[in-house]
Amino acid sequence: MAQEMVKMAQEITMKEVPEEALGTILKTYLEQKIAECQEAIKRFEEKYCMNITNFYEKLDEEFGLSWEHEKDYMDWDWATAKLKKLKEKLGKLQIHGD
Predict the structure, then answer these.
(1) pLDDT tens for residues 40-62?
(2) SS3 string of the chain?
């Protein structure tokens, strides 16, 4: 099964070296996930007209501790943390790919 997946990656990317094919697919996947996180963060920043740090500071003061605000904060924080991890992984992939 793994061998079939590598062969498919080579065919899709048109790269003969298995590591290059898998690296290309992984890079594309990471870039897609980074874009999704960035879009989520952008939606929250536009909704509240501020970044997550300012929102957290104003949570409970300016923004009540409603379910919506708490959920938005959790989702925003998750997207921010995930973005950081994905960027780190992409950076490592690019270092090893060079």
Answers:
(1) 999 999 999 999 999 999 988 88
(2) CHHHHHHHHHHHHCCCCHHHHHHHHHHHHHHHHHHHHHHHHHHHHHHHCCCHHHHHHHECCCECCCHHHHHHHHHHHHHHHHHHHHHHHHHHHHHHHC
CA atoms within 13 A on the CB side of 28: 9
Per domain, the residue ranges of the chain are: 51-98
Both structure tokens of 79: 């997207």
Q: What are the tokens at 70? A: 């708490």
Residue 19, Cβ neighbours under 10 Å: how many? 12
**pTM given for the model:** 0.85
Contact yes or no for 15/21 (Cβ under 8 A): yes
